[in-house]
Amino acid sequence: MTITSPKAFISYSWSSPGHRELIRSYGERLLNDGIDVVLDQWSLAEGQDKYKFMEQMVADPSVTHVLIFSDRVYAEKANERKEGVGAESQIISKEVYDKVDQKKFLPVVCEKQENEEPYLPVFLQSRIWIDFSTPERVNENWEKLLRAVYDKPIHEKPILGRPPSYLLEEGNRPALPTLGKFATLRDALLNSKPTLALCRQDFLDAAFEFADGLRVRETLDITELEDKVLRDVHTLLPLRDQFIDWLLIETSLPESSRLEQILMDFLEKVLALKYRPPELTSWNDEWYAAHDIFVYEVFLYVIAVLIKADRPDVINSLLTSHYMLPDSEARGNGNFATFVEFRCYTYKVLEARNRRLQLRRRDPIADLIKERATRSDLPFKEVMQAELVIFLVSVMAKDKPWYPRTLIYSGSGRQRFPLFVRAEQHRHFKRLQTITGINTADELRTKFKEGLEQPGVKNWTDLTFWADVSFWRATNMDSLDTIK
To answer: For the structural domain made of 7-150, what CATH number should be given?
Structure first.
């Protein structure tokens, strides 16, 4: 990258021989840093009119900056309009007041008063200045001076992005009550604060309280329920994104043995949202369609984030562990469930809407997941890849049916998924070894083939896309671990 060399005129007072020498040393250092410096000590020859010279330098359009090195003597002479500094300051002050671009005039304070206030002329006292009052301050702030002259601030305003997709959607959504708590958590994560665990807990408690507040607790007719489900799906989208933002940060930090337990605890709380609130004794499972979709979607994104973070060990743990069920579900059903509990069922309320509006959607839930996959850091292809990993494990487990809804968009298996394509190389196949617990590609092929041929597999789902999708091709099964 090329940077145009700026040109700077130095304005100062001949306060003492020592100060004059110091200013010359600053000029030399600026020249060494690529700035074309105009200084009277080497630019003003005998016989020249010094006042005319000053006026030309201040008004010269090729001079990008006027550096005003102000000490006590400079401030006094400028305020009293004495000698050369007085005349020069009159020229400068007029430019300061008249010109729109104020960045041209940079005050550099070389001396402070006893109360630590800078010695500056009155016309500069409201301006931001650079502290050169001690040798230590010069070293600390030299880069600041260079950045100001080169117009290269250390913090630049980011490029204007596009509005979040949820703002462009129809309908209104209440502001998330978790915004402040998420900001606190993010700061605690990035700065390894000792309060991290408490900040995480505060954020998650607020998040689940918000999501729980949306669960239906009274009977609705079919029209009300349809509107409620779609509205809640819409309302939960920014919470999903906050969870993803948190997980992307959490998994990017140095590996920790705590990550597995943090995610297990989180997913157990997520899972509880798809069931009835514990105080209800009469309910309809259709009431919780929005939360069921949300739970399914969050689980897919958790796996997608872990693939992105290269944590196959944690993926294995999540797909082989058991999750404690909420009290409302534990009676008679056991206390724990496997990952298949995160799958999403087909709901009559959505199917009825699909038929009524003649939407002709093969799977309304898969459609919703795809429509909501608006993040550039985790595009829909990575969500499908995550579901393919889950499906691979579920098929080989044989007793863990998983409905791979999003894979209706995989292009009959022609879609290339990086995790499986890279696994042609032995060193990348190790990720699949860790995820599945299977050591060789041949054994993996055998188990996957046996799993796909189970008589009951096609009964796992009422979807009709099985004949259109080649899971064998999608997983790149024939080529796994063929490049040593």
So the answer is: 3.40.50.10140
